Amino acid sequence: MNKALTVTAVVATVFAGYAVYFDYQRRNSREFRKSLKKKAVKQQKIKEKVEKETKELKLETVKKALLEDLRANPIPTDLNEREAFFMEQVATGEQKAKDNATDAAICFYKALAVYPNPTDILGVYQKTVPEEVYELVVMMIAVYPPASVSSILSRGGAAPGETKPTAEDLD
């Protein structure tokens, strides 16, 4: 018992001594502060690089999965088929959301592709679908926008007869 207490006291003293030394160096040594800042910047750059690579890999994976699924199961064009297809895809997406986010996102993407007003359904998705699945759906829209979304994006410019504001107008 006495030996364990002695070891604990020595370890605590060494730790406290190191903390005091570190704090003294941090406060009084420019070189030490500079080295700490360099290490922090280096770690931040490494972190950003890893995040960027991870995001690019995720985007490629999502793109590949979406295009393979669209080739295997194309989106119907008939109005009656589209309504049934929408309901089927939403139900399937809700079931798959618990197990496989990518498959669920593909289902929700396909439902969005046949929905007449995609901005409304995106709002519903944002409120009801898990965040990871919603993020994948948005990635899929960015990678391969459905026709209903493309038409909205193309209308984003100036209407015929309107002129876009110039830099002088904005001043």
UniProtKB/TrEMBL annotation:
Q: Name one GO biological process term.
A: intracellular protein transport
Would you tell me the Gene Ontology cellular component terms? mitochondrial outer membrane translocase complex
What broad class describes the main subcellular location of this protein?
mitochondrion
Entry superkingdom: Eukaryota
Where, subcellularly, is it found?
A: Mitochondrion outer membrane
- Record keywords, A-Z: Coiled coil, Membrane, Mitochondrion, Mitochondrion outer membrane, Protein transport, Receptor, Transmembrane, Transmembrane helix, Transport
Any GO MF annotation of the entry = protein transmembrane transporter activity
- Can you tell me which residues the record assigns to a coiled coil? 33-60
InterPro entries named in the record: MAS20 (IPR002056), Tom20_dom_sf (IPR023392)
Against Pfam families, the record matches this protein to: MAS20 (PF02064)
The record describes its membrane topology as: Single-pass membrane protein
Q: What family does the database annotate?
A: Belongs to the Tom20 family.
Q: What is this protein called?
A: Mitochondrial import receptor subunit TOM20
